[in-house]
Amino acid sequence: MLYDRVMVRISPEDGERRSSGGIVIPATAQMAKRLAWGDVFGVGTSVRHVKVGDRVLFNPEDQLEVEVQGTTYLVMRERDLHAVASELTEHGTGLYL
After folding, report:
1. Backbone Cα Rg of the chain
2. If you placed Cys at 57, which of 10, 49, 82, 95 could pair as Cys (CB 3.0 to 4.6 Å)?
3. What is the pTM of this model?
4. The CA-based dihedral angle spanning residues 31, 33, 34, 38, taken in that order and rounded to the nearest 10 degrees
């Protein structure tokens, strides 16, 4: 990756979802714009706040798609990321924004 670009793969669990009542909502269902979680697989030399392996929150609809060795990735600028999740192990467990 070059400059401030980040290559992300959308997390597989962002496909089908279940409602609180147990109804399966397919990934193709039309809903309001929804942010997605993904894993960072590549970063450019000018990226400052994200590293490979981080889990990030972003809008997948406005990004460029690329296929590398049969796997689909999204390429975006670092400024298009909304959050980076990190595990906080000193004071608890889980993901914190």
Report:
1. 15
2. 82
3. 0.69
4. 120
Residue 24, phi then psi, degrees to nearest 5: -80, 130
CATH of domain 5-16+32-85: 2.30.33.40
Residue 92 DSSP label: -
Q: How far is CA 70 from the centre of its chain?
A: 19
Closest CA to 74 of 22, 9, 28: 9
CA distance 35 to 80: 11
Q: What are the pLDDT digits (tens) for 10-60?
A: 876 555 566 567 776 666 665 567 788 899 999 999 999 899 999 999 888
C-beta of residue 62 within 8 angstroms of C-beta of residue 33: no
Domain ranges in the chain? 5-16+32-85
